[in-house]
Task: inverse folding
């Protein structure tokens, strides 16, 4: 599905959240009357579904790609049930209903709304033109992508920067290493400085961690890691560039860089503002829904993000998303897998909260 429109957006959001919503609403009768999960009563065995899901995500696309692709959501569901069913048996349906309902309403839905919004906004920005894929140009694009990852999120920054990287290196005999380092730098390490960058950081923000905590405490470690990765990339890329040379005509000749869909840069600033306000605004105003408290800041943030998403789709020319080869497929996969991750990490977070 290339391009998008508001109707497709609404349909996509319904699809990626219907399982979570169905599960949550089925659990409302029990959730309102159960106690919070006590991590002191759990053992290390309860973390196995979480570890198993992470290993599945890491290894199965490599070892069993045909089995994994198209069935990733089923594996996420199986690992979720590996926690939910034993927990419901040992602690009761009421306790299971509470923890599942709370994680879906308080954690998963805000997460998927934020990631979807960043994905749509970034997908509405297209970097036109081309720079030859020299080691210097590649290094610059990776550094820019790393900086953007903490603002756009790693997914959004990857969507924005991968096209210029592909065009710049499409005439090089060997360029696989470029995209391996792109994954390391842009899709992972670069998102470490704000809650917008990586899902675990946003989850911490939802739990009360200050928005600028990682920026204040991890900037030096992140900078050291990125400098090391960029330096290693420079050495590797320079070696292959000198060794291989340019042996075929560039299918995308050099052209001045320009940006289409600039309205999304303004919308990106609105996203940042909404997230900041939700962390700064302290109020007792809240609504109870099945035992879960939904505060006014969350309602403002998530409602505002949905509006930003629709505005991005409405105000961005269809051709921009077509040039970006925009598709909902990656977002749907993220939604399926993280639904399982959020469920299976319930006992892990409970044990961390309980402390030593």
Result:
């Amino acid at each position: 599905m290339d391009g998008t429109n508001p109707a497709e957006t609404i349909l996509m959001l319904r699809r990626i959240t219907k399982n979570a919503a169905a599960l949550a609403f089925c659990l409302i009768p029990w959730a309102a009357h159960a106690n919070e999960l006590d991590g002191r009563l759990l053992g290390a065995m309860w973390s196995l579904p979480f570890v198993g899901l992470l290993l599945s995500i890491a290894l199965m696309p490599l070892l069993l790609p045909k089995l994994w692709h198209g069935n990733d959501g089923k594996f996420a569901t199986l690992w979720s049930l590996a926690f939910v069913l034993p927990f419901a048996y040992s602690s009761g349906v009421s306790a299971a209903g509470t923890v599942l309902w709370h994680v879906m309403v308080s954690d998963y839905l805000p997460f998927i709304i934020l990631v979807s919004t960043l994905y749509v906004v970034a997908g509405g920005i297209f970097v036109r033109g081309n720079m030859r894929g020299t080691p210097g140009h590649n290094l610059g694009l990776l550094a820019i992508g790393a900086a953007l990852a903490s603002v756009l999120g790693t997914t959004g920054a990857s969507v924005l920067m991968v096209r210029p990287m592909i065009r710049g290196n499409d005439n090089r005999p060997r360029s696989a290493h470029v995209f391996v380092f792109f994954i390391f730098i842009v899709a992972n390490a670069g998102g470490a400085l704000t809650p917008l960058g990586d899902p675990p950081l946003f989850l911490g923000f939802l739990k009360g961690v200050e928005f600028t905590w990682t920026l204040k405490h991890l900037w030096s470690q992140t900078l050291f890691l990125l400098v090391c990765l960029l330096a290693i990339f420079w050495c590797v890329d320079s070696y292959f560039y000198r060794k291989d040379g340019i042996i075929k005509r560039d299918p995308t000749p050099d052209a001045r860089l320009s940006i289409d869909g600039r309205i999304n840069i303004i919308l990106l600033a609105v996203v940042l503002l909404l997230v900041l306000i939700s962390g700064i605004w302290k109020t007792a105003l809240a609504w109870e829904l099945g035992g879960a408290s939904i505060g006014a800041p969350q309602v403002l943030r998530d409602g505002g993000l949905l509006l930003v998403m629709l505005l991005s789709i409405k105000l961005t020319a269809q051709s921009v998303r077509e040039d970006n080869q925009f598709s909902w497929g990656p977002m749907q996969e993220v939604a399926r897998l993280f639904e399982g991750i959020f469920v299976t990490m319930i006992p892990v977070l409970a044990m961390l909260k309980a402390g030593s």
Observations:
- The beta strands are 126-130, 255-260, 286-289, 292-295.
- The two ends are 49 Å apart (CA to CA).
